[in-house]
What does this fold into?
Amino acid sequence: MTPQKAVIGLEIHIQVNTVRSKMFCTCSQDYRGAPPNTNVCPVCLGLPGSLPVPNREVIRKAIMLALALGSKVLDKVVFVRKHYFYPDLPKGYQISQHRGPGMAPIAVGGSLEIEGDSGPKRIRMRRIGVEEDPARITYPSGDPTRSSYSLIDYNRSGVPLIEVVTEPDLSSPKEARVFMEKLLELVDHLGISNPDLEGAFRVDVNISIEGGERVEVKNIGSLKDIEKAISYEVVRQRAVLAAGGKIQRETRHWDPVKGVTIVSRYKELEEEYRYFPDPDLPPIAITSSIVEEIASKMPELPWHRAERYVKIYGLTRYVSRVLVSRKRLSEFFEEVVKIYGDPRRVADLLINDFLGIVNERGGNLDMVKASPQSIAKLLSLMDQGVISVKIMKMILERVVLGGEDPEEIVVRENLKVIASDEELEELAEKVIKENPKAVEDAKKNPKAINYLVGQVMKLTRGRADPQKIAAIIRRKLSIGS
Amino acid sequence: MSLVNKQLRYVVEAVRDNREALSEYIYRLYERIERYEEKLKGFITLRPADTVIREALEANRLGKPLAGIPIAVKDNISTEGIRTTCASAILENYIPPYDATVVKRLREAGAVIIGKTNMDEFAMGSTTETSYFGPSRNPWDPSRVPGGSSGGSGVVVSAYMAPAALGSDTGGSVRNPAAYTGIFGYKPTYGGLSRYGLIAYASSLDQIGLMTRDSVDAALLLEYIAGEDPRDPTSLDLRVGGLFKEISSLGEGRDLPKARLVIVKEMWSGVEDHVFKTTMNAVDKLSSEGFEVEEVSVPEVSYALPAYYVIAFAEASSNLSRYGIPLYGLSKDPENTSWIDYYSEIRSKGFGKEVKRRIMLGSFILSAGYYEQYYIKALKVRRLLRDRLLPLLRRGYIASPTMPIQPPRLGEAIEDPLRLYAMDIETVIPNLIGSPAISLVAGFANSLPVGLQLIGPPLGDRDLLLIARTIEIIIGLSNLSPQMG
Amino acid sequence: MEVDIKRLERLALLKLSDEEEKALSKDVEKIIGFFKQLDGIVLEGVEPLFHVMEKEAGVREDSVEKGIEKLWIERSAAKTIDGYVVGPRTITGEES
Ligand SMILES: [Zn+2]
It folds into this structure.
C-alpha cells in the first residue's frame, strides 16, 4: 500500500529589511545590533493614543512581489486587526491583512513554478499581504520552560513583513524547501528582503495527510527546519492514522532543539482572531497607473536572469541557477564578466572556489569584501602564468573575505610562479640527488614520478607549474611520458 | 470685574502685554479651584499653581498668540510628563512620553495645561460616574451629574476653574456635559482634529472637541489646533483660517446669517417634557427671527442607538486589548507568573465594571459567528443613516435637544445600562455619520440649563460655528454663571 | 443562553468573580436583546460603512526619526534588566 499523500501549504512571513523605517512608524527597520528597547516610539510600543501611519515603500514592494508572482493586485489596500494576547504583541492585536467582509489583502492568486518531486510544478498563491512584526522575546536561561520570566525587546516591534500564503499544493518536505528557496531568491532579486539576515523569514506550515484534519505548525525560522518539521509531522500523522487514530485539527509548535512538534495550549485563543478592518487606517487606493509604474521599475526576475545566462553566456542550467540564487552573487558575476570576459571561467571560479569559502561560513554574501575587479585580476594573474591554481586557492580567502588586492599579496609574499627554467632545473637536480630511492622507483614505475614533482613543488612553495616540473624531471631521468 | 468670569478671548487680550494680570488671573482660577474643587471634582490631576504660572509667563514673554492662557485637558488626551489616566486604575500611574497633537499645537500657540479633567473610565459613560477617581458633580446642582464622559471638562469651564477645556466625543461626550453644565460644546467633523494622542475608545467615532464659554472662544482655539496631521491618517483639513475674525464680528451692525433648521421628528420623540418645551421654544424664537424650520421623518434614526453601541463596543474591545502589558500602567512583578495569569490579573483589577461589560460585549460582537450578525449589520445601518441624513444636511442644520432628559441625580442612571445608553440617543447620530455638531444653551428648565444640538454637514464646521454664534446672539444665553454656594 | 460568559472571559483575558459573572451575564443578555433591535430594519443591498469619511488614508514616506528615550521605558516598565522589559513566563504552568 502506498502511503497517503501529504498536503502542504505555507504561510510565509518575510521581513522587508531593505527599507529604512518600520511598517507604521518612523523607527529604523534595522533593529539588529541596537541595544534593547532603543529603537522604539509610541507607535511601535503600542502606547495609548498612538496611531499607525503606513510606509508607502513597503506597500509598493508588496505590489512588486505580487506582480512577479502573477497575482491580481486589488484596487485598495485594507489593514485589519488580528487579535491575540501574547507578551510580544504590544497592542493585543497585530495590524495585518485578511479576506472577509470589508477586508482586502494586497493581492490574490498567482503562482510560482518549482522543480517538484516529479517534474515542474505550479504552486498557487492564495494571497499576499503586509503586516507588522511583533517584539522579540528572549529568556534569561535561554529556555522558556526553565525561565521564571521573559525578556522583551521592542526594537523589532513594527518591522514590516510581507505575508505570502500558498494554496496547499506542496506534497513533500523537499518540495516545500525547493519552493522556499525559489521564493527567497525572488524577494532577494526584487530588493524586498535580504533572506540571509538572522530572522529574515518565518514560516507557518499547514500539513494534512489525505483524509485527515489539518495541523498548523507555527514559527519555523530556517529552511532546514521547514524540511525537518514537515518530515516529522508527516511521519507523526501517518503513524497516528496507521494506528487507527484520528488527527485533530490543532496548532503545534516546532521545537528546533528537540526536533519535534509540540501541541500548543490555548488553541481557542489562537483561532479566534476577531479580524476587523482597522478603523485607524482608511483603505489606500491602488490605481492601475500605480501598478503600471511599479511594473515598469521591476528588476529582472531571477529565472529570467538564469535563462539569459544559458542563452547568452552559454552556461549550464545548473550553473545559471546557482548564480541567481542570490542577487548579489549574480550581480557580482556579471560585473566580473564585464571586466574579465569568459563567463564560463568566471562562473566556475565563483561556484566552486568563491562560494565554497562563503558557504563554509554560513553562506551570507554580506561577508564578501572582494570587488569584482579583484576577482577579475585573480583570473588574469592565472592566465598570465603569474600565479598557479594552487596559489590562487591559497590566497582566495583573503581576497574574498579580507578584500585584499591579489596582486599586492603576490608581490608582498613573493608568490609569483617561478618562470626561469634554470631555477627549476636546479631545484629538480637537488631533489633527484636527495631522493635516490624515489628516483629508482620512478624509473621502474613512471607514475611514481609524482613524488619527486611534489618535492620540487614544495621547494617552490607552489609557485611552479607541476606539468613543467614533471617534464624537466623526466628529461633528467630519461623517462618517457 | 475679575477676568475670571470673562471669555477666553478677552482674557488673552487683557494679559497679552500684562504679565502681572496673567499671574493674577491664574491665581484667581486657583482660588476658585480651592473653593469648589473638593465638592465638584472636576480634575483628576491638577498641576501646581507655581508651575502653571511659570510656564504661562514664559509663553507670554515669548509673545505666543495665546499668551500663556491655562487650558484644562480631558484625562484621555496624552500629555508628555503629566500623568494621563483615562480615569482608570489600569492607567493610574501612566505618564506618557509624548504630547497629543492637539496638546502640542496648543502649547506651541502659548497655552498652558492647568490640569487633567475627570471623565468616565475610558470615556465609557454619560455621567462621569464610572471614573475610578469618583464622580464629578454638576455646578448648577451638585446632587446631579455634570454629564459625561467629559464631565470634568464641563465642570471646570462652567465653574470658572479654567476658561476652556478639551474634551473627547465618541457619541456625545462633549455635547452632553456641555448641555448639562450650561456651556458651549463642539465636536468637529470626524478627522477635523487629530486623534494622535487621544486614548482610543472607539476609533471610528472618537473625536476631540472643545468646551468653552461660547462659540467664539471655540473658533479661536480651533484655528490653533485644526489642520491635517501626518501622524493621524484619518485627519482632515477643516479650512478654518480666519474664522475667529469672522465669527467675532458677527452681530456688529451687519445682518446675522440665517439658516434652515431641520426637525427630524424621531429625534424629538421620547424627549422629556421640560426639555422638549425649552428646546422647541428656542426653535420657535429662531423661526421668528427669520430661520426657516422644516419638519421631516427619518425612521432609520430609531436604529442609531443600537448600531452605535455595537460599533463602539466592538472597537473598544479591540482598543483596550493593549492594557495589561508590563510596559506601562498597572503592573506587578512579572516573575513566576504565566502570561495568561499576568494579563488576566492586571486587566481584572485595573478595569471597572462598565469597561469590563463593554469589552466582553465587544469581544462577543467580533467573535466568529456574530461578526456579520451584529457588527456588519450595524455598519450597514451606519451607511443607511448617513445616506438618509446627508441630503437633509445639504438643506439645513438638524436641530434637536442635546439630551433627552435633564441631568440625573448621582446614582440614578448608572444602575441600569440600557437607561444609561438611552441618554445618548440624540448625540450618537453625528458621530455615526461623521458630522460636526454643537450644543449650546437653549434655555432653562427646573433652574437647570437645557442644551440645543445642531448638526452640520461633514466638513461644514465653519458655517456651523457661524450659525451657532448667530443663535447664541439671538437666544442670549452664553457665558452663564451657575449659582454656587 | 446565547452568550458563553466563560468564553468571553477567555477572549478578553478577564477573570470575573462568581458574583461579577452573574451580574454581568444578566446585563449582557439584556444588552444583546437591545442589539437585536437591528433585526427590524431592512438592509438589503446596503454596504457596510467602515470608514465614515471615505477619505483615503495618509501614507508615509519611508524616512526615519528619533524615537523615545530609554529612560522613559526604565521608569515606566514594571521591571527592566539590562534594558529589556521583564515580562511574564511565555508558557503556561502545564508545559515544562
Ligand atoms: Zn516606532
Q: What stands out?
A: The domain at 8-256+465-475 of chain B is CATH 3.90.1300.10 (Amidase signature (AS) enzymes). The two ends of chain B are 19 Å apart (CA to CA). Chain B touches chain C through 73 residues (CB under 8 Å). The longest helix of chain B spans residues 371-395.
